[in-house]
C-alpha cells in the first residue's frame, strides 16, 4: 500500500536535514504505529506525505499502490486514497460541515473519474455514518470545526475519514494532548474503519492509544530515521523503559 524508501527531507528555508533516510512499508489491511522522542521527525514525515509546503525532498521516494506520491499535488494525493488527520483541525467559518464534506467527497470522485454523488444519496450516507459515530445532525450544519470542542473535532475528523473512504490513513496524534475520551473516539473510529483494503499509520507517543488500536507493527523513530521495528510489545517496552535503551542499542 505505502512504500517509503530512503526518504531524506530538509527544510526549504534553512539548511536543516530533518528526515535522514526513512524506510517504511505498510501493507493493505495493516495498522502501523510510529512512536519516538519529540523532535524526531514524525510530524514532518506526515506533512511531507500530505504535500505540505516548506519541505524539500532531497532523496528517496514514497509510493501509494506503486504511484509516486511526492510528485503529486496535495489534492491528487487525496484523490488517490491518502487521508491525513492532523493534530489541529482547521476551522472554516462560513462553510457548513455538510457542504464541506460533500465538496470533499465529490472532488475526490471527480478526480477518480467517478460521477458526483447526488444530494439525496449524500445526505443518506452522511447521516448513516454520522449516526454510527454518534455525531448529531446539528453538528453537520455548523461551520466546519468552528467552536467545536476537542472531542467534537476528533469525531468530525473520523467522520471525514469515514466519508472519504481512503485507502491509506495517516493520523498524527503526537502532541494533541488526547484525553481518555478523545483517545477512545480515535481508536473506535480507526477500528470501525479497519478493512483488508485499507491501511493505517498512527503516529503517537501514547502507548495507551495502542492498547485500543492494537497495531500490527510498531516503529520507533529517532533523529530522522526509523531505528527499530517490532510488534505491539515494542510499544510496551517504550512505556516501561522510555527510549533510552532502544537509542543505546542502535548506537
Ligand atoms: P516530532 O513530530 O517527532 O516531534 P517534528 O517532525 O515536529 O518531530 O520535528 C522534527 C525536527 O524538525 C525538530 O527539530 C523540529 O524543530 C524541526 N522542524 C520541523 N519543522 C520545522 C519548521 N517548519 N521550521 C523549523 N524547524 C522545524
Ligand atoms: Mg513534536
Ligand atoms: Mg509531532
UniProtKB/TrEMBL annotation:
The lineage of its organism: Bacteria, Pseudomonadati, Pseudomonadota, Alphaproteobacteria, Rhodobacterales. This is Fe-S cluster assembly ATPase SufC. InterPro entries: AAA+_ATPase, ABC_transporter-like_ATP-bd, ABC_transporter-like_CS, FeS-cluster_ATPase_SufC, P-loop_NTPase. CDD domains: ABC_FeS_Assembly. NCBIfam families: sufC (TIGR01978). Gene3D superfamilies: P-loop containing nucleotide triphosphate hydrolases (3.40.50.300). SUPFAM superfamilies: P-loop containing nucleoside triphosphate hydrolases. SMART domains: AAA. Residues 2-248 form the ABC transporter domain. The gene is sufC. Keywords: ATP-binding, Nucleotide-binding. Belongs to the ABC transporter superfamily. Ycf16 family.
Amino acid at each position: 500500500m505505502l512504500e517509503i524508501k530512503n526518504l531524506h527531507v530538509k527544510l526549504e528555508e534553512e539548511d536543516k536535514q530533518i528526515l535522514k533516510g526513512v524506510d517504511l512499508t505498510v501493507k493493505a489491511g495493516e495498522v502501523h504505529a510510529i512512536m519516538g522522542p519529540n523532535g524526531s521527525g514524525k510530524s514532518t514525515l506526515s506533512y511531507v506525505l500530505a504535500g505540505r509546503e516548506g519541505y524539500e525532498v532531497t532523496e528517496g521516494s514514497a509510493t501509494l499502490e506503486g504511484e509516486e506520491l511526492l510528485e503529486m499535488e496535495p489534492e491528487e494525493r487525496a484523490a488517490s486514497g491518502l487521508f491525513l488527520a492532523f493534530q489541529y483541525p482547521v476551522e472554516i467559518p462560513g462553510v457548513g460541515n455538510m457542504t464541506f464534506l460533500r465538496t470533499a467527497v465529490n472532488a475526490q470522485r471527480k478526480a477518480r473519474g467517478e460521477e458526483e454523488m447526488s444530494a439525496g444519496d449524500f445526505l443518506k450516507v452522511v447521516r448513516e455514518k454520522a449516526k454510527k459515530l454518534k455525531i448529531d445532525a446539528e453538528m453537520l450544519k455548523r461551520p466546519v470545526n468552528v467552536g467545536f470542542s476537542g472531542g467534537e473535532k476528533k469525531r468530525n475528523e473520523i467522520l471525514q475519514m469515514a466519508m472519504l473512504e481512503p485507502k491509506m490513513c495517516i493520523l498524527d496524534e503526537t502532541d494533541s494532548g488526547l484525553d481518555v475520551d478523545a483517545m477512545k473516539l480515535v481508536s473506535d473510529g480507526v477500528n470501525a474503519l479497519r478493512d483488508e483494503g485499507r491501511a493505517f499509520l498512527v503516529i503517537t507517543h501514547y502507548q495507551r492509544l495502542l492498547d485500543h488500536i492494537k497495531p500490527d507493527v510498531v516503529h520507533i523513530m529517532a533523529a530522522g530515521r526509523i531505528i527499530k521495528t517490532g510488534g505491539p510489545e515494542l510499544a510496551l517496552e517504550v512505556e516501561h523503559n522510555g527510549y533510552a535503551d532502544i537509542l543505546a542499542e542502535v548506537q
